[in-house]
Structures are given as C-alpha cells and as structure tokens.
From TrEMBL:
<dbReference type="InterPro" id="IPR007296">
    <property type="entry name" value="DUF403"/>
</dbReference>
<dbReference type="InterPro" id="IPR025841">
    <property type="entry name" value="CP_ATPgrasp_2"/>
</dbReference>
<protein>
    <submittedName>
        <fullName>Uncharacterized conserved protein, circularly permuted ATPgrasp superfamily</fullName>
    </submittedName>
</protein>
<dbReference type="InterPro" id="IPR051680">
    <property type="entry name" value="ATP-dep_Glu-Cys_Ligase-2"/>
</dbReference>
<dbReference type="Pfam" id="PF04168">
    <property type="entry name" value="Alpha-E"/>
</dbReference>
<feature type="domain" description="Circularly permuted ATP-grasp type 2">
    <location>
        <begin position="96"/>
        <end position="474"/>
    </location>
</feature>
<feature type="domain" description="DUF403">
    <location>
        <begin position="523"/>
        <end position="826"/>
    </location>
</feature>
<dbReference type="Pfam" id="PF14403">
    <property type="entry name" value="CP_ATPgrasp_2"/>
</dbReference>
Length: 842
C-alpha cells in the first residue's frame, strides 16, 4: 500500500510529513521489511522516528549526517578487508535499525536460550561425550570439523565455563519471525563497532536519541567486564585482549574495546608461559595475565600443540590451561559450534538438554553425512542452498559461501551431486533464506536494503546478559545471506526502544570502596617500543622539516645569492641528502639537484625513506599499533599531518615549500603539546618522551657538526640558531653578532636551553630514574650507567675547546644509549629480561 493511501487522519498527517523521505519506498516482493509492515503500512515506531527526524529540518539533517561522517573519519574509525594493504573508513549508515521493546524481549530470550544450549553442548563435546554416545550428535559431525581441537579434550576451563561471549547472526524470515542464520562462538567481532556506531549517531542526533527512549549499551559492557573479572582467580585481575595485530581486519575495534573497557591490548609476542601461568612481558619484567579475551582463532593460539605455523599465539598456552593457569574467553576449540553442520542438530539438542523448543529457530539444515538426509538433499537440490558442512568451500563455486542449487548449470549441478554422493560428510543442504530489508538513506530518501543483525550475549555471575542493540550490516545487493564488511556494505546502529525514559549509564565505577590508583598499570614491552619510536619518528620528522623550512626560507631571501649564503644553502641541501630525505643526483641527467628541488623532495617524496612524509608515515604506523594508548585528538593530528604532506605530485614554489613545512611543524608542536599536557606521567609517557629526547639530542649534534665547525662562517652559525629555534635567546644574551664559542655552548652545553644536548640529557636522566628496574640489588642498569657517563662529559665540557670530534663522540654515545634502552625495555624474544625471583611475578 502506498504511503499516501487513506488511513485515519492522524496517520495521514504523519505520512504527509515523511512523504519526501519515503517517496517511492517499496519493499522487495515477498520479503519482510522493517519499515513497512505486513499490512502495507509504516510501522508505528518508524513513523515516530521519522516524525521526530522531519522536525529537525532537511537542511539540518544533511549537516548532521555530514558531521557524523566527519567524526568517523577524524576519529579514525576503520576496518580492513582481508588482503587489503590499507584501512578503509568505517561505512556508517545514517539511519538506525529500529526494534520495538516487545519484539526485542523475544530476541533477547531466544539468544539467551541459545547461549545456554551451546555452553552445554561444548561442555559435553570436550567432556563426557554423552551426546555422541547416545547418538544425538554423530561423532563425525564433531571430529570432522577442523575447529574441533583434540588437545583440548578433557581440559575443563577455570570456573567450568567455555563461553564468555556469544553472538548470533539473525535475519527475519518470510513469516516475519527472527531466525538464527549463524552462531559466533569462536571470537565474535563487531561489538566495538556497534559501540562506535552508537557514539557517533547519538552525538549527531542527541535529542532524537533521547526522545526515542533508546536502551543504552554501557550496562552490557559493564556486565561483560564484571563477568570476566569475577571469573579470575585474583581480586584485582589483569585482563588482556589478545589481538592478531594491526593487520587484522578489525584491529581498530580491538584497540577501541581495550581502551573503553580498560583491558591490556596484547599480541602473542607480548605473552609467555612460565610455571603453568601466562605472563605479560612488560618493562618491569613479567606480570601475570589472569584473563585473556582472545580475538585470534583457536588453531593459532599455541604453536606448540596446535598450528605450528602460527606466529600469533602463545607457546605453552594449552599447557597453562591444563594447569588452570589462565581464564580464556572463549575457550579454545569453541569454534566447532560455528560449523553449519551443527545447525542440523540444534532443535533436537535443545529439546534433549533444555527440555524445550528453540525460541529462535535456525535455518533448516540437513547434514549429508546421514544417508536419509543426503538423499533428501540430492532430491531437492533445486530448492536448497548447499554449503560446506565445516565451513569448507563448496568445490570451486565460491569461497566458503552457500551455493544456490537452482542457480547452477546442469553440468555444475551434476558435479555437485556426484561430490555429495561420494563424500556427503562435507556438505549440508539449507533452506534458501532471503534476508529482510531495512531503510538506508540514499540520495535524500529512504531505500530498502537486506541486512543481518548480530546480537551479543555476555556471561555474568548471574547468567547471560544481552546487549540491547547489536551490530547491523546492510548489503547493497538484493540477495545477501552472508553480509561481510566488504565493498558496498554499510553498518547501522541498532536502536532498541524502551517503554519509559532510559537512565544514563557509564562504565565509571560508583562504588566508594574502589581502591584508588594513581598509576596507569602494566606497560607491555611492545607498547613501550612503539611509544619510544613514535617519539623518535616525530622528532626526526621535525628535524627534517626544520632543515627544509630553513632551506626554503633562504631561497626566498632577496640577498640569497651571496657566496656564503649560497654555500650555506648547499650545506642544508647536503644534509637532507645525507639523511636520505632527497636523492643525491637527478634521475635523468645525473646533475646535482638544486636546493629548492631538494627541499621539495625532502618534504613530500614517497621514494626516500628519510623524507618528512616517509617519517610521518612511520610515526603513524607506530601509533596505529598503540592506538588504545593515544587520545582521539592525538590520533587525528597524526592523520592530519600525514594528509598535509601528501601533494599528489604537485610542483611547489619556494614559498609553498616553506608554508607546508611550517604548517607541518605546527602540527607536530600540537602533538607534542598534547603529550605534555594530556598524557598521564606514567611509564608510557616517559618512554615516548625518551624517544623524543634521544632523537633531538642526536639531531642537534649533527646540526652542530655541520654548521659550527672551527671555520664556520656567520651564515652557518645563524642557520644553526634557526634550526634549534634559539635566535631570540641568543640575541637577548649577546649584543655582538654570532660567534662560534657562544653558539656551541648554547647548542650543545647549555642546560637551560630546551633545544640543547645538555638539556636533553638532563630530561633523559629524570626519565630513566623513574622507570622500573628489574632487580633490587642497587646496581645501575646499562642505560642509566651509559647516560650518567655521557651527562658528566657534557657537564664538564668547555665550549672554547669543543670540536667536531668531541661532538661526534656525544652523538655516538647517544646512539649507543638508544640501543641500550631498546635492549633493556623492548626485547621480545626468548631472552627477554626478567625480574629477579626475589621480586616475584606480580
């Protein structure tokens, strides 16, 4: 029925107001739609949403949608399609999926029931095996699945629970009921993106979100965190989120959740097994990991007993599980329940184990490993979808996706039938399900598109709690039984309406008995390594930008053709070449590149690893691995810096090179300012600042050797003061022009100049004194020992006798210091430094 039909007056008024948005909206033939009900009319809760939306005004709606898109981009919300080298900006649908409170209660009860059922099946499969013995679950349906891990058989998890988080992929069937189309028990993803969707959309439409009485997500995450805490064996447990690493398709989500929940984000190399327990490699030695929420597949979790090719897991993890040394969420081997073959037995298992029917039925599935079912599937292949029983490909027709029998050619159908007859154990037949549709915003109006809804359940001390919302993926294709986050797919926030206004809830603790802490806690060696190098890369980029700006500035000056100034410009250009910021010779004729070309290349070159652009990209890569430790503002600034240095091959004038370098330096100054003003003064900040100080001291030594040699002209000394930003200070101290000894003193030896080498060594001493030590014997560790010697040499040096050889000695000492810091704090291999036995493993 069209929206402009003649319902009662009140509905007609609402239809008229939304006519511009819903004009031409037509559900797919025979497919249920979330907006238009079975009676052909818009559902009441959608009318209320659109009525409130139209009150905002069309122009304001567009601005808010644009603001939401900008916020996603600025915040770095992203994902990666498998095989892609780079991340993609998260594709948020501007229109949420709306679900009424009564309907949601049915969904939540069905998901909760299924979570209880799957827990019981897992307990039996890896325990007594009564279901297999009784014939309720064929042994081949379990042991034939690659995700059934025999080394885990008989290992009961700490606390006796296999599943701590479960997700069900749902679709609305032709009868209007919600159906389970997939179980996610391995390492369910998407909850973090659901949270990001909510924060972005509720920020864009706060009044609309409030007036619709939408259920909050924070209580779910609070319950999940409390559930993991209660599962641990200590009162103040250390909870880790185990990630595959920054190349994971959902790495942003993992870092986002770790930050939001206060978990420690770790990779496999950050963990080690000692004495039957799992520990985190930190800068203070090994620290016990009580709970691990894994986001890697079970098979990759332990290269010793599972997949020997894995570089993502923790050697000895299975043995630690045998000794009850760690809580793992979810238990290894739980992915066996994700196999399509398991769906064929769920209705029967639910009646046997729970004594009731499934509240949410799953797709009708027939396993071809049973003779009668195989015959039925072969007889009805034209009306079924054929899938791999264990997630395996269906011959060469598709990669792990179901194949519609009716869509195959006669030859393809014959080949598939032969394969099923020969080895039916590898196949299941499933009912063909056409997903229901939900509105998206397209060209200023609503358009129906198929979707999949993922709903999450988290274990708590009191049972299972269900997220009031979920992760909704919307396809741009009419047929989308399995919607993955690829090209053309959007994600929508899921708004579950409440019967009354909803209280504001956050993850901030309200219990006055919470123990007060003033330190950030454990700093893994890998995170410390990346913080250190983030500081070094940013400082290295700043030094390069200073040289570029100085070179471009002198090219602009009207009297720049004097002999001394021309020589100084050549030295600046030579310094950039020696730093591999620009090539030494022109690619075409072999002639030396003029100073302006050197400056432009050093600014934007993608080929030279020492260019400002390359260094900023290195900084961004280091930052991406520790995203959970950076503020959104810092991450945004790093992204802005990278974008600003990309010129897409444009030719720049002297003034443009100067302006680009100057603007980039201001952005780096903003990043440094955020670090100084906003970062907690814990070990992470100290390692970040240590990287900056070490790199700055090295660069200043190099500047001094190039421009403050024994025969340096006044122009060189003037450039040196520019490079270390000390012109004003020098002029205020010395009324005469630049002279060698005062400049050397200010650049290298002056502890009051924040750009001098001496100042950096003093700050470095403060940092190393406040970083943790591994032993309590009172002996100095190698970095502090080396730094104290260097600081003493600088403090006792005299400017009048300081020469390039001595400055080079300082530079080499600083390079050795950087290596010593890396060896002490960042070692990740089997020879990682440990705390003394006497200090214990906290």
């Amino acid at each position: 029925m069209p929206l402009t039909a003649t319902p009662p007056d009140k509905e007609l008024t609402a239809a008229q107001r939304l006519a511009a948005f819903a004009a031409g909206y037509k559900p797919l033939e025979g497919i249920p739609d979330e907006f238009i009900g079975a009676d052909g009319r818009p559902r009441p809760h959608w009318l209320r949403y659109l009525d409130l939306l139209t009150d905002i005004g069309e122009e304001d709606i567009g601005r808010r949608f644009a603001a939401a898109d900008k916020h996603i981009k600025d915040s770095g919300v992203s994902y990666r399609v498998y095989g892609d080298a780079s991340e993609r900006t998260w594709p948020l649908s501007h229109v949420p999926l709306l679900i009424e409170a009564d309907e949601w209660r049915d969904i939540a009860q069905g998901v909760e029931q299924r979570a209880r059922l799957l827990e019981m099946v897992l307990e039996d499969v890896y325990g007594d095996g009564r279901l297999i013995a009784a014939g309720d679950l064929p042994a081949a349906a379990v042991t034939g699945c690659p995700d059934f891990l025999h080394p885990l058989y008989g290992i009961k998890p700490v606390g006796g629970k296999f599943l701590h988080v479960y997700a069900a992929d749902l679709g609305r069937g032709p009868d209007g009921r919600w159906w389970v189309i997939g179980d996610r028990t391995q390492a369910p993803s998407g909850a973090g993106y659901a949270l990001a969707n909510r924060l972005v959309l509720s920020r864009a439409f706060p009044a609309l979100y409030r007036d619709m009485n939408i259920e909050r997500l924070a209580p779910f995450f609070q319950a999940f965190r409390s559930g993991l805490t209660s599962a641990a064996q200590r009162s103040n447990p250390r909870i880790c989120l185990l990630t595959p690493g920054p190349l994971s398709e959902t790495y942003f989500e993992q870092a986002y959740l770790a930050r939001y929940l206060g978990f420690l984000l770790v990779e496999g190399g950050d963990l080690t097994m000692r004495d039957g327990k799992i520990h985190v490699r930190t800068i203070a030695g090994l620290k016990r990991a009580d709970v691990i929420w894994r986001r890697i597949d079970s098979d990759f979790a332990d290269p010793l007993e599972l997949n020997a090719r894995s570089r993502l897991g923790v050697p000895g993890l299975v043995e630690a599980l045998r000794q009850d040394g760690v809580v793992l969420a979810n238990a290894l081997g739980s992915g066996v329940l994700e196999a399509p073959v398991m769906m064929s037995f769920m209705p029967k298992l639910c009646r046997k184990l729970l004594g009731e029917d499934l509240r949410l039925p799953n797709i009708a599935t027939w396993w071809c490993g049973q003779e009668s079912e195989r015959k039925d599937v072969l007889a009805g292949i034209d009306r079924l979808a054929i899938a791999g029983a264990f997630g395996n490909p269906v011959l060469e027709f598709s990669s792990n996706q179901p194949v519609i029998g009716a869509a195959l050619t006669p030859n393809e159908k014959a080949r598939l039938s032969t394969a099923i007859s020969r080895r039916g154990i590898d196949f299941v037949g499933q009912e063909v399900v056409n997903l229901s549709t939900t509105p998206i915003w397209s060209n200023g109006k609503l358009t129906p598109r198929p979707f999949v809804l993922r709903v999450y359940a988290a274990r708590t001390q009191d049972g299972w709690t269900i997220m009031p919302g979920g992760f909704c993926r919307i396809s741009d294709r009419a047929d989308a039984r399995a919607v993955s986050m690829g090209e053309g797919v959007q994600s929508a926030d899921v708004w579950v309406g409440a019967d009354k206004p909803v209280e504001m809830v956050t993850l901030l603790p309200t219990d006055e008995t919470v123990r007060i802490r003033r330190i950030m806690g454990t700093l893994p060696s890998r995170a410390a390594d990346n913080l250190f190098w983030l500081g070094r890369y940013l400082e290295r980029a700043e030094a390069t930008l200073r040289v570029i700006r100085c070179l471009a500035g002198r090219a602009i000056e009207t009297d720049a053709q004097t002999a001394n100034k021309g020589l100084t410009r050549s030295k600046l250009a030579g310094l950039l070449v020696s730093w591999h910021a620009a090539p030494e010779e022109d690619d075409d004729d072999g002639d030396s590149i003029d100073p302006l070309s050197v400056a432009a290349l050093a600014l934007h070159s993608e080929k030279e690893y020492g260019s400002a652009l390359s260094l900023v990209r290195d900084a961004r890569r280091a930052a991406s691995v520790i995203r959970e430790r950076l503020s959104p503002d810092a991450w945004r600034l790093i992204g802005d810096l990278n974008q600003a240095l990309e010129t897409n091959g444009a030719t720049l004038t002297e003034a443009e090179v100067f302006d680009h370098a100057d603007a980039a330096m201001r952005t780096i100054a903003a990043i440094s300012g955020l670090a100084q003003e906003n970062m907690n003064r814990g070990a992470g900040w100290r390692l970040f600042d240590t990287g900056r100080r070490v790199e700055r001291a090295i660069n200043v030594c190099r500047f001094a050797r190039h421009f403050a040699s024994r025969v340096a002209p006044a122009d060189d000394l003037d450039v040196l003061l520019d490079l270390i930003d000390s012109q004003i200070t020098y002029r205020s101290r010395y009324l005469m022009g630049v002279a060698l000894a005062p400049v050397r003193d200010m650049v290298v030896l002056d502890p009051f100049n924040p750009r001098s080498v001496a100042f950096q060594t003093e700050r470095l001493q403060e940092h190393l004194e406040n970083l943790p030590v591994l032993s309590d014997d009172g002996m100095l560790e190698a970095p502090r020992r080396q730094l104290m010697k260097l600081a003493a040499e600088i403090a006792t040096a005299v400017a009048s006798t300081l020469d390039n050889d001595r400055i080079l000695g300082f530079e080499k000492s600083l390079l050795r210091l950087a290596d010593a810091i890396a060896a002490r704090y960042f070692l990740q291999g089997p020879h990682v430094a440990h705390a003394d036995k006497s200090t214990g493993l906290a």
